[in-house]
Design brief:
The chain has 150 residues and is an alpha+beta fold. Helices cover 24% and strands 33% of the residues. It has one domain: Hotdog Thioesterase (Thiol Ester Dehydrase, Chain A, Roll). A hairpin with a 7-residue loop joins β6 and β7. The mean pLDDT is 92.
């Protein structure tokens, strides 16, 4: 049985303020710290969708694309949104934004899968609506591209 996904469960948002301990030797955001926050946001989105956090594991992180530097004191929002659902996979698009920037400052895609207690993948039974796919065509196609399906 395939469940249509509740629209509310397709996105999660978190916020952070960049502090001195989050910076690299150039005085800008340390990529590893931002990556941690972004993958955590993506994991939360995938777990909310599946409803069983213990069954969700990250198997691929696509490139982080930094368009502008982030600095001490910047207040950022991290939005994670379902980009694609395979039979056992969940691809999440994550973007980092600042109030002063119209476009995302950093973007990323990550793939998660559902696993059982023996660490074997299993079908999650979820499906995106055609309307959702149409409204999110760019991230849907980007997800297909990193999976080698386009």
């Amino acid at each position: 049985m395939v469940d249509k996904v509740d629209q509310e469960m397709l996105e999660s948002i978190s916020f952070h303020i960049i502090r001195p301990e989050d910076l690299n030797h150039h005085g800008t955001m340390f990529a590893a710290q931002l990556s941690k926050w972004m993958i955590e946001g993506a994991l939360i989105a995938a777990c909310r969708l599946v409803g069983k956090p213990e069954d969700v594991v990250c198997v691929q992180v696509d490139k982080l694309t930094f368009r502008k530097p982030l600095r001490n004191g910047d207040f950022i929002g991290i939005k994670s949104k379902v980009a694609h659902l395979g039979s056992s996979s969940i691809t999440i698009y994550t973007e980092v934004g600042r109030r002063q920037d119209a476009d995302p400052v950093v973007t990323n895609l990550a793939i998660f899968v559902t696993i059982d207690k023996q660490n074997k993948t299993y079908p999650h039974g979820l499906k995106l609506s055609e309307e959702y796919i149409a409204n999110n065509r760019a991230i849907y196609e980007a997800a297909l591209k990193i999976q080698g399906k386009k």
